[in-house]
């Protein structure tokens, strides 16, 4: 049963409208399945679209944001559930507490950094939940190629492909979560290739 999902996404408002539309569709799917959304707490870009849609559909959303971002008024005013933390490191740690999956939408360096960290944590057996990458408009094609190259060049094992799933449409996210292979804390035994 999926109860809570963390969504990594961007704060840029200048991006192609196709990304906003995909975010809205994903938000509706999450609300329809009664899944609480955990996100970065922002009010603009895909973060804003995600929160606006979840709230408009009557869903539950939790924002997690460093205090310094709140001080420059980045926090979404309509999101009632908020956790303000000391820094970015604590934010990323809190994102993963009690979630049943992580979903990465297209984004910039912050989104990429969060995504690579959670993949690394999974490789080490410190996070065991599904990681779903929404590849709207082929945005993450270069990342898929890079991760595959990590495996073919033996920087990662073949089994590491099970750590993530790329999907092209928002409606494929929940089925991808449900059908992701299990992962356990023993993964650290295979983290280093010998």
UniProtKB/TrEMBL annotation:
Q: Which UniProt keywords apply?
A: Cytokinin biosynthesis, Hydrolase
Supply the InterPro entries for this chain: LOG, LOG_fam
Q: Which Pfam families match?
A: Lysine_decarbox (PF03641)
Q: Which reaction does it catalyse?
A: AMP + H2O = D-ribose 5-phosphate + adenine
Any idea of its EC number? 3.2.2.n1
Q: What are the GO BP annotations of this UniProt entry?
A: cytokinin biosynthetic process
Residue ranges that the Swiss-Prot or TrEMBL entry lists as coiled coil:
none
**Top class in the EC scheme:** hydrolase
Please name the SUPFAM superfamilies in this protein's record: MCP/YpsA-like
Example of a GO cellular component annotation carried by this entry: cytosol
- In terms of domain of life, where is this protein from? Bacteria
Annotated GO molecular function terms are: AMP nucleosidase activity
Family assignment from sequence similarity: Belongs to the LOG family.
UniProt protein name = Cytokinin riboside 5'-monophosphate phosphoribohydrolase
Q: Which organism is it from?
A: Catalinimonas alkaloidigena
